[in-house]
Amino acid sequence: MDIYLDNSATTAVCRDAAEAAYSAMTEFYGNPSSIHKKGIEARRLLEDARGSIAGLLGVNSEEIFFTHGGTESNNTAIFGAVNKGKRFGNKIVTTSVEHPSVKEPIRVLDSQGYKVVRLKADKNGDFDVDELYESVDKSTILVSIMAVNNEVGTIYKTEQAAAAIRAAGSHALLHVDAVQAFGKLRLNPARSGIDLMSMSAHKLHGPKGVGALYVRKGAGITPISFGGGQEKAMFPGTEAMPAIVGFGAAVRALGDIELNLMKAANLNKILRYELSKIKGVFFNSPENALPYILNLSVKGIPSQVLVNFLSDKGIYVSAGSACKKGKRSEVLTAMGLPPSIVDSAIRISLSRFNTENEMFETAKAIEEATQRLRR
User: Fold this and answer.
1) What is the sign, positive or negative, of the torsion defined by CA atoms of 83, 84, 87, 89?
2) Are 171 and 88 contacting, i.e. CB atoms less than 8 angstroms apart?
3) pLDDT number for residue 228
4) 15-252, what's its fold?
5) pLDDT 10s digits, 153-189
6) To the nearest 10°, the Cα dihedral for 320, 325, 326, 332?
7) DSSP label at 289?
8) Is position 323 annotated as part of the catalytic site?
9) Long-range contact list for 125-132, CB < 8 A, 24+ apart?
């Protein structure tokens, strides 16, 4: 029996999403831009999916744009916000522990002459609020801070970022990469002062190849790709209807987010307790991290060796972010952890479909690994 614990990398597509995608491919296969019956049917499904995502966020449907995934959402938000705001200044404020799909676009802007401030991470992977307020000023045009860290699960104070922008009297737009938070935490970007928010379907049991970007009405970012004008010309190209319809179905199948969160917290607590009995296990995720993510190190066993050992037993975890395969974790390094801990770190990431028994079996397997691999 397989135990899948790499849900921050991707999730299994739930039945509702798979069936919705299949029907979009075989029955409702029209182009949503066409004006005949098949096109109108497809357009209705497209807008139903948009409405489901907007409803979960408590925003208007017209503020949701479909993309090809979290990376496209992040890139468009960052470059679009900077293109819009460059007449007001050239400063960007972000953190040192962002996902590569945020870090790399900002690195490009840094090389083009924009002034980039990267807030330092503490031992919990969090940033200092005082440093945030000191960094945001009237020349700041973009603040980009993730909602939840994808490696250690730290939940960030995005409301403080919005407050810092207001306090500085800045024209900056606030972008939040919510790929690891959407569907797991109750989010309301409008209430939190967020202008741009990125999401992805395959992190919440939807299909790969589709994401969404919330753009606050009036934010007015400029597109970075051009074509036929779909998605109000923000993301041109024929919409990936099977993936989009599956995304909407996955959102509707989430159930109660708070109950799911409580279940994840219980599983996390069990796993932490069982692993705490094993000599040489260190927890890298803070106690108040998103419970869906638990990063830990087993001292003396390299990450990939432990990942392979568990994989042979049908237990699937990762050696950090799946987007930085084979590279030392920049997040754990930024947190000040020693190389011996960084190089032995693994990430266990849960979903609402995991069970208590799987936590016990995983802890048992890790204990066996310490006995066999260290020897």
Assistant:
1) negative
2) yes
3) 80
4) Aspartate Aminotransferase; domain 2 (3.40.640)
5) 999 999 999 999 999 999 999 999 999 999 999 999 9
6) -30
7) S
8) yes
9) 125/97, 125/149, 125/151, 125/152, 125/154, 125/286, 125/331, 125/334, 125/335, 126/154, 126/156, 126/157, 126/286, 127/95, 127/156, 127/157, 129/157, 129/160, 132/93, 132/160, 132/161, 132/164
| Rounded distance between C-alpha atoms, residue 274 and residue 113, angstroms | 50
- For 3-11+256-374, CATH gives 3.90.1150.10
pLDDT at 271: 98
DSSP structural state of residue 300: T
Ranges of each domain in the chain: 3-11+256-374, 15-252
**Which ranges of the chain have pLDDT less than 70?**
233, 320-326, 375
Give per-residue pLDDT as tens, 316-336.
999 965 555 557 899 999 999
Identify the active-site residue in 129, 323, 334, 373: 323
**What is the sign, positive or negative, of the torsion defined by CA atoms of 321, 326, 331, 337?**
positive
CB 3 within 8 A of CB 361: yes
Rounded Cα–Cα distance for residues 232 and 226 (Å): 11
- Give me the DSSP letters along 103-169: HHHHHHHHHTT-EEEEEPP-TTS---HHHHHHH--TTEEEEE--SB-TTT-PBP-HHHHHHHHHHHT
pLDDT digits (tens, 9 = 90+) for 217-255: 999 898 878 778 777 757 878 788 999 999 999 999 999
pTM for this one?
0.94
**Mean pLDDT, the chain, as a whole number?**
94
